[in-house]
Amino acid sequence: MNFAIHLADLFEGYLILLQSSKPVIHIIYSAIGDLLFSIMSSFVKLTCLTTDTRKVRKDAQALGAVNVEETQNLLSIHKIDYGKAALREIGSLESKTNLDAVKTEIKLCYQDVTLYLQKNLPYKLSILKDLQFFHKTNRLKEVSVLAVRRVATKVAEVLHGTNLTDLNKDRYADEIVRQFKLYQTEDINLDEELDSYSFWRMIGGMKDQQNHLKFDDLSKLARTCLTLCHGNAAPERGFSFNSTMLQNREETKEDTIIAIRIVKDAILHYGKVEDFPITRRLLDLCASSRQKYFLHLEVEKQQREFSERQKQKEIENAEAQKQIKEKLSEVQSLENQIEEETLKLAVADNLIEEGTGSLSSLLLTNGALNKSSVMKAQMLISAGVEKSKTTNSNIKNLKLKMKNILKK
């Protein structure tokens, strides 16, 4: 646990930098080098991490190329920096075998972390390496002019056709280099409290003896580059701001959110509300905003009324469908009952037919009539007639009900 805390401390500075709200894209390359050096110097020999001629650390790209799996580049497990608290905890182990095993595991952890960083950190991006020369303390470095030329050429390609410049990329790069070389000779107060964006705004305002801006194009290029996102902090703050806007504003529409964000981002860009430029276009938009708002309300009202009519129509259609289903269900039930009554009517007819047949047979027989047989035949006929009468009445009533239902 103590080693994990020690390792986390090594990442702290770099992670805090990524969360900065100020422009830091021009120091990311150097920060990557610092991070790699901080971790690698804990278990890699210093000769692998510094230049041969000067005892200064290698840059990020050179550190990323160091083979941390090569045994001859590594410190022995007894010279590795484990952090004071972790080292004290390791020292409390009684068994030398356990002690060496723990140290070896920590060395492997250092290797895995470094290999992951070497694979995933963006130190191979040439634009990051070149942008570091827009830092106010790096203007006199040997390769700064070539780096600035590469940046100018790339930006001119990407922003071709914008209001950045009317020159082609080669002439634009030449002009930027001319201004940068002149900028290198200026005696400039490097105020530590002044962030890079404000610094380059100040540079852009410097004038020559003829009252012309000396570094206008260079300043615009630098500030354009400084707007490049250096991490997830800006999007995360954007999500947070959106969340704040939506609190207790469930009815806020997407257009409103976009409008608020545009205003917020514009104010952040210009620094202060009083620095926001009041243009004729802005005044015209403000003057017509009330009329547009009322028109917006009228459109919303019409849409709401249309939606309500559609909803009512859907309810009525659903109710009509429900009634039709109920009618069909009732009609089907009545048809089933009529079918049952029809079967009962057939039974009644059979009784009558059977009684009539028996009585006819008795009458045609010579000799005295059997009263018991006659009574039995009469009972069959009577039962059949009664059942037929009742059944016909039921069928009539059922058909009447069906007729009334179909009329509704």
TrEMBL record:
UniProt-listed Pfam families: Dimer_Tnp_hAT
InterPro entries on file: HATC_C_dom
Alphabetized UniProt keyword annotations: Coiled coil
GO molecular function: protein dimerization activity
Domain HAT C-terminal dimerisation: 183-265
Coiled-coil spans in chain: 297-351
Superkingdom, taxonomy of origin: Eukaryota
Protein name (Swiss-Prot/TrEMBL): HAT C-terminal dimerisation domain-containing protein
Source organism of the structure: Pseudolycoriella hygida
Taxon lineage: Eukaryota, Metazoa, Ecdysozoa, Arthropoda, Hexapoda
